[in-house]
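[job 4471] stage=fold_predict status=RUNNING
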Amino acid sequence: MKYILEVKNLSTAFKLQSGWYRATTDISFALRQNETLAVVGESGCGKSVTAFSLMGLLPEHGSRIDSGSALFKGEDLLTMPREKLRKIRGSAMTMIFQEPMTSLNPVLTVGSQIAEAVYYHMNVGKAAAKKRALELMDMVKIPDPKNRYNDYPHHLSGGMCQRIMIAMSLACEPDLVFADEPTTALDVTIQAQMIYLLNELKEKQQMSMVFITHDLGVVAHVADRVAVMYAGTIVETAPVADLFADPRHPYTRALLKSIPRLDKDNKDITPIQGMVPSIDNMPEGCRFFARCEKKDQCRPDEFPQLLPLKNSSNHQVRCLLCE
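[job 4471] inference complete, writing structure tokens
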């Protein structure tokens, strides 16, 4: 199988008081086994909506998939019966949510929450599920798993709760994991530990990962390839080394210029002027035109396509100036 996940032209819409509006438009990417794709961009760019669409976690009322397909191991997640999707979700395909302190159930022990996933998806008894939960807690380096098994989420630090979330997502040895900003709420030291742990477990279990983040500083340590999102569309995708060495889209360049660096003075940091447009006020043409430094050279009313560069089929850019 060439790709474990192949997404083509995915568009997701939400209903507001004045009608239906697209939060994501024409999302396309593919993921191989044991590959990590980092999806980056500012808050409100559609990163989490894309993941929730593929996982089937959008609310039944007020949201819809307008178009596209998402082949997971050859089967379309978007047209799959909900009962079949439920069996895949949590076993072959899982998610690490953004806020562990709010994602974990506060009235259940952390150990029982891990064991529950094993019990329901791996068809084993409760004793075997508990044994597997303890193994997972040890795998993610929870100290003294036997005693921590009966702790509640509020007994643990944010870093420990995130490890519990990772253990839950890996409980059934999934083929694909969506990590939705798993290091955002953690301090820098714990972030580094989580990144190391995820990379270690990914190699051990040969799983694929979609790593969602707004922190480009994290990307270089986790990703094989990068997809940059802006205003609900992918504007650039490339191998991680190529993206940092030769960013082509004006938005990608602006993101990199806004990151503090040890080898440069703080005066060199350039913030991106303006804000991401809301879904009920999306431009008809180039989504980034209003904030682009090169808008004088461009046609604002034409919606650019995501096309490969002439000298690199692995590097794609959605920009009229790069065609």
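[job 4471] summary: The two ends are 31 Å apart (CA to CA).
[job 4471] exit 0
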